Amino acid sequence: xxxxxxxxxLLASALFLVGCGGDDPSSSSSEGSHSFCEDDGQYFVFDxxxxxxxxxxxxxxxxxxxxxxxxVLDLLGANDGYANVAAYSLTETTDYDVMxxxxxxxxxxxxxxxEVTRYSSEKILIGDYSLFExxxxxxxxxxxxxxxxxxxxxxxxGFCPSISRYYEIYDFAGVDADAASEKxxxxxxxxxxxxxxxxxxxxxxxxxxxxxxxxTEYFSTLNFTAxxxxxxxxxxxxxxxxxxxxxxxxxxxFASYDPSGTTLGETASHSVVIVDGMIKSVRDFxxxxxxxxxxxxxxxxxxxxVVYDVETIGAYTGTLLDPTAFTFxxxxxxx
Length: 335
Fold this sequence. Notes:
Layout: H1 8-12, E1 29-31, E2 34-36, H2 51-56, E3 62-63, H3 66-74, E4 85-94, E5 108-119, E6 124-137, E7 142-156, E8 165-172, E9 179-184, H4 187-194, H5 199-215, E10 221-231, E11 246-257, E12 265-275, E13 278-292, E14 295-309
Antiparallel strand pairs: 1-2, 3-10, 4-5, 4-14, 5-6, 6-7, 7-8, 8-9, 10-11, 11-12, 12-13, 13-14
């Protein structure tokens, strides 16, 4: 089945687009040590929306119909604001010839991670970022290894009544590798940044990928399913059925083709796991491989995982970075 149009609710989703300053640029609201011209606090609601849970609750355990899958996709963005903690990881590897050795100019390995907490009352994101990269620099003919850590922050500037901006900063310790961006925002844009999850974007991405894979002629396997299970709070089915007290739905898009002769095979796997009406985890995997001793040996792969959670977060007691200490750039680190 090809998706020829977007799902109705995705098309109908309204953008409130509250502008900076609102209708009355003289109004203000206090948030921590900053004052904002836009009185937009009413839009930053991070409560648990049960719309998605209400759709999932009556479903029987097992693989669902396409209609049910589409109804879950339709509401995937209903509860974006609830999660206030996110843990990201990304692995990217290119490895030819001798596996595990930088013996080809194309070889490289990167591992990236980021943990982010939203402080809802202050409307800021605070976290830690790390990267490990190992690659061969052809220009200098040397092997390069980077192992870096950074503080991560997102916050608004509080300037008014003219242009309001928000900053996203990676402050690396001990090295000149900082990355910072300054963006003009409206309320919707900043709310999307504070919502660590973007379920609507995930739904549209799954649909777009499904149509793209369906259009190709070389995938021998293509499945797009929704499966309900009883799981633990992480969305994992325990061997002890008594521990599986949570309702979970896994949306999974899987595409692959087997290698023939010297041709490499390819695997693409994308999944979203919903637990008790909240997106709990997201996984994206892409890889090309050859079969050695009846097992796939990946030469190129990219795997990204995100796990979301809800924790009790108090007031932020740290110090926000000074944006004037950074040079703004258009790029930013992976994740």
